Automatic annotation (TrEMBL):
SUPFAM superfamilies: C-terminal effector domain of the bipartite response regulators. Residues 121-219 bind DNA. The lineage of its organism: Bacteria, Bacillati, Bacillota, Bacilli, Lactobacillales. Residues 121-219 form the OmpR/PhoB-type domain. This is OmpR/PhoB-type domain-containing protein. The keyword rRNA-binding does not apply. One of its GO terms (biological process) is regulation of DNA-templated transcription. Keywords: DNA-binding, Transcription, Transcription regulation. GO terms for molecular function: DNA binding.
Length: 225
């Protein structure tokens, strides 16, 4: 069963959830609506931000900006009532769709179906990554093996377990050097630089820097490292 994330700001989302589950046959993964409690335990292709009306405008805007630093998911904003000007802002901040639940709820199943069909059709353009723990090598799209150091391998292993999701500096340092390590962001940056240098030039954008946050392993090369 496919899964979508839901961040609800209404405290009364049961009708919406029933619509999604019964018609679209999706499993809802509830995400806390407080940033201090935020954590993505798995990669989600779609995240829905569900609000009431203009009273949730600033909150949803803040969350859209916040989420873009952590995931490359497809964002849908659903509202009980929408304002045209606010709709434009949501789209500018990265929402792919803004749905008025009072008049457009029937579009949600179609929207999700179309999105996942498009996602499936794009699979051939995604990069295939293979990590071999026995000899600490990386193979991208079946090309030649790239030999990695122990630390480089640990970084790739951590990032590949969270494709499309930002892994924070702190989490990476803890994973690579250990929880009690005094390793710095500079050491981590140097390690990432060394790792990218071993990749084919066209693949170096796979390891993306998320400024002030950490790093993300993209499913296709990004222009900005």
């Amino acid at each position: 069963m496919k899964e979508i994330g839901l961040i609800d700001f209404t405290n009364n989302e049961e009708i919406f959830l029933t619509e999604i589950i019964q018609v679209s046959k999706y499993k809802i993964i509830r995400i806390p609506n407080k940033k201090e409690d935020f954590k993505l335990s798995k990669r989600l292709d779609v995240i829905v931000l569900n609000g009431n009306d203009s009273s949730d405008f600033l909150t949803i805007c803040e969350w859209l900006a916040f989420l873009k630093s952590y995931t490359s998911a497809y964002f849908i904003v659903t509202l009980g009532n929408e304002d045209k000007n606010e709709r434009l802002v949501y789209l500018q901040l990265g929402a792919m769709q803004v749905i008025n639940l009072n008049t457009q709820s029937s579009e949600i199943p179609i929207l999700l179906k179309n999105y996942h069909e498009k996602l499936s059709s794009q699979k051939n353009s995604h990069k295939s990554l293979e990590l071999n723990s026995a000899n600490r090598t990386l193979v991208v799209d079946g090309n030649k093996e790239v030999e990695l150091t122990r630390l480089e391998y640990k970084i790739m292993n951590c990032l590949s377990n969270n494709i499309g999701t930002t892994v924070s500096y702190k989490e990476l340092i803890s994973y690579v050097w250990g929880q009690d390590s005094s390793a710095s962001k500079i050491q981590l940056s140097n390690l990432i630089f060394s790792l990218r240098g071993k990749l084919d030039p066209k693949d170096r954008g796979l390891v993306k820097t998320i400024r002030s946050k950490g790093y993300m392993l993209a499913d296709r090369p990004q222009d900005n490292l």
